Every structure is written in C-alpha cells, then in structure tokens.
Amino acid sequence: MNCVDKYNSDQRTDQGVTGAPEPVENVLAALRDVGVTFATVPEENLAKGECWVLFYAPPGVDKNKFESIFEIVTEHENVRIDNQILSLHFAEVRRNDIHNYRRIGLYNETDRYGVSEIPLDEGLENVQEFVKSDTEPTPRPSETISDEGLVQELADGGVGAIAVDNLRSNQEILRFKLPISPATGYDIVGTYDKVQIDDEHFELRWEFNWIPDFLGQVPVYGKDDITQTDSLTVEHGVSNLESYVADGCSLFSEVILR
Questions:
Q1: Mean pLDDT calculated for residue range 31-58
Q2: Taking 90 as the threshold, does the pLDDT of residue 74 lie above it?
C-alpha cells in the first residue's frame, strides 16, 4: 500500500464510538476541504467490508487540518455507503502511489498524476455502485511475461527509459524503475506479477516517477533524449538483463553502469 501514516481502529480513543456511521459523501467533502487532492479506496477492502480511504495532499497543505478527518474515525468508526455499513480507515500515501489500479477512484482535483479528474459526485457514484452491485474486485496480477516481451511492451507504451534497481533486486525479485506515473505504468503492466528470464521466474516490483539515471543501475532500455546518454535498444537491454541474472543478480555484475 506504500502508506506514510495510517489512521485506523488501533489509534482510536478508548471512549468508544459516539456517533452513527458517517455518510460517505461527508467523508469525501471533509477530505476536499482540508486540501486533499486525490483519494481512492482499494476494491479488495471494500469487498471485505472495509473502507480504506487512501489520500494524497500536496506539499504545503497544513496537515494540522487533518485532525478534522481523523475525528470522523474516533467519533463514528464506520461509514455508510448505499445503506451498507463499513469500517472506516484512512491512510496517507506518497505521490508514487497515486493510481486507481484495483481501486475505486473517489476524488481527483484535476487531471494530474496520470489520473483523470474525478469530481466528488462522480467518486460518490463510483463507490456506491461498487458496494450496491456487490462487484467482484479486479483480480490480482497473475500473468507471467518474458523479459523481451516486458521491455518491448513498456517501450511500445511510451516509456522512455527502464532500469533495474540492483540494490533492491535479488534472485527472487526484480525491481524495475520507470520515469512514468504509477497510473500510466499499471495501465501497461498491471496484470503481470512475474517475468521469465531464461528458465527462471522473478516476482515483479515497480518504482514509478523515477528520474532517469542509469548510474548504479542495470540499464534495460533508453532513448538518448530521455537518459542524456547513448540510446539503448530493447535487444541490448534484454541482453543486459539476462547477463545480470546469469551473474546471480550480483551487486558486482559487469552490466551495472558505474
């Protein structure tokens, strides 16, 4: 979830619930009024009867105002969505976790972060429809893709540079770094959970909003106007990736740019 802070039942006062479930429209309005510019809720949590509101507030917003949001949790504990009662939780997320993949968009102030504008009334309709229709959550990523197929798909999707973070990758997990928003990234590769390189399979992890710089990374793909270095073809990048894996994902692999 990549949350900065969580505000949930573990942090509620010992005084107990003092009010009836809060209507979800009041929760959304409260978020907007304190300066939140993006809010969403994971589908899986809604299906479990939990309304985990993930929100982002840009730098400069007075976070002391957030107390008015958290008071909703301590006073009401639950939220009402289309006459159904769900437990209410809040979590603040970083900018690199702004997306609506496998989530229900509640609010987006304007067309930014790679996410289309979502007015409050539209977000309200989104979450009410999901709860009312008892919609099944979008399945978790489950597909495996070849290394060449993955790099080619990202390149075809407009990604100008790709690297593997050798410090946070190992013989089980590969973390790819991409200079795009998470919303755009998940649209391209959201269904994949593993990549196959030769006969080995690796779990995929993503780092979005990366500022392209191959130094200390495994270069996988790059346009010269993006990376300020010589361009790197898909074929060359896949060769680097396969050599890195053949080296046991070592920090001392010769393909790491130094």
A1: 95
A2: no
